[in-house]
Design goal:
With 407 residues, the chain is mainly α. Helices cover 42% and strands 5% of the residues. The chain contains 17 helices and six strands. The longest helix has 22 residues.
């Protein structure tokens, strides 16, 4: 067995010097530092064998699991004895192991009333597709296990992802990178999936790198305060499912206007204000985005023209026939201290529609922007150009403006 070397197509090309990153060398004590321990390998041909056998014993064992305790025991055996698991079953084992941080997640988050299901929050903040988790009865019971309470208050939600999910997601990426076959069976289809429920290792790594990038980026800003912002139950009825809360929905889960989001978050520093360790987490996000771009280009060389220089400062992107200069690197090198600065600053008194924005904040990303009328179009251009789509919480603060431009 030999180590799977990731083909870094543009690693050195994307080695952008970000002065902001160099000034931050510590990590917040309450969050576990992620590990990105790849030395850029030399370009090498990769000759992995195709899928050599069907997953069998682990798959049967997983099918026979009936309770959350049995699933927890299976995950513990995977974590403890991973090296002894046959190669053909390793990818499925790693998929199952990702459930570990989320036992009782949905019911716990309901109990502390964040206003949305835990799996929905996970998908929103990291892009991780939890659809097939919820379709599996045993996994659903694991997510809703009332015996386990790993989060006790709303302020712990973001910290939990940092302590529990970041190191596990990093570890899974490293272990998938060591797999020796080209294709594996997949249980949850979270990281790309073919019709026969198999996944290419390279496609899986691309998807995982993007998840890690978004996971890291969301730590640059605080968002626990958003859980306190609700809609009146008279206006919006909570969805009465097993994953819904008994209180009003979180404002992020329902249609809202820009003036509503702005007015209700205006004085809440823990709603999109920059975190104390933003420089560190943006550095990790930046490194993961480089990894994602490298793998995306390896998997599809046709993506190179759009992706290869995305983080090279000012880049021109043609949106609806108009060339727009975009500087994505500014979001990492010189982050805005409060993402609410990108929300509209003035609204029409009658229609409540946004009329003005802080153009200076926007100029950091769009050097050539000149007027308020251009803001919606430029935001849509950014959403289209940003590799892998806008990460959370950028997608939240920009969404109302983007919608306005499309109408």
């Amino acid at each position: 067995m030999y180590r799977f070397l990731i083909y870094i197509f543009t690693f050195s090309l994307l080695n952008l010097s970000c002065t902001h990153f160099e000034k931050n060398a510590t990590v917040a004590a309450e969050l576990q530092e992620p590990t990105i321990d790849f030395a850029p390998p030399e370009i090498t041909s990769i000759a992995h064998r195709g899928i050599s056998a069907e997953s069998n014993s682990l798959e049967i064992e997983f099918r026979n699991v009936k309770t959350p305790d049995e699933l927890e025991a299976l995950i513990t055996r995977i974590d403890t004895n991973y090296a002894a698991i046959p190669d053909t079953e390793k990818f499925m084992a790693l998929e199952i192991s990702l459930l570990k941080p989320f036992r009782g997640y949905n019911v716990t988050l309901n109990q502390i009333s964040i206003g949305m299901a835990g799996t929905d929050l996970l998908k929103m903040t990291t892009g991780l597709d939890t659809t097939n988790w919820k379709k599996n009865p045993v996994v659903n019971s694991y997510l809703a296990d009332k015996k386990v309470r790993r989060i006790t208050k709303r302020d712990d939600v973001q910290e939990h992802l940092g302590k529990e999910f970041v190191p596990r997601m990093n570890k899974v990426f490293r272990l998938v990178a060591q797999l020796t076959s080209k294709t594996y069976k997949t249980e949850f289809c979270q990281f790309s999936c073919g019709k026969d429920k198999t996944v290419s290792v390279m496609q899986a790594l691309e998807s995982m790198a993007l998840t890690n990038a978004k996971l890291s980026f969301q730590f640059a800003y605080k968002y626990n305060g958003i859980f306190n912002i609700r809609k009146s139950s008279k206006a919006v009825k909570p969805n009465k499912t097993t994953e819904s809360t008994d209180t009003d929905p979180n404002i992020l889960t329902i249609p809202h206007t820009e003036i509503e989001l702005k007015s209700q978050t205006r004085d809440v520093s823990s709603a999109f204000g920059i975190s104390t360790q933003s420089g560190v987490w943006l550095k990790y996000a930046y490194d993961w985005y480089k990894m994602y771009i490298s793998l995306a280009i390896k998997n599809d060389p046709n993506k190179a023209p759009k992706l290869a220089q995305a983080f090279f400062g000012n880049q021109q992107h043609v949106y609806q026939g108009n060339p727009i200069l975009i500087n994505i690197a500014a979001l990492f090198d010189k982050p805005n201290p409060d993402l609410k600065n990108f929300m509209a600053s003035k609204f029409d008194e009658k229609s409540k529609k946004p009329t003005e924005w802080d153009i200076d904040s926007y100029k950091a990303i769009f050097p050539n922007i000149r007027s308020n009328d251009e803001v919606p179009t430029y935001v849509n251009a950014l959403a289209e150009y940003f590799p892998g789509g806008l990460p959370f919480p950028l997608q939240v603060v920009f969404k109302p403006t983007a919608v306005k431009a499309k109408k």
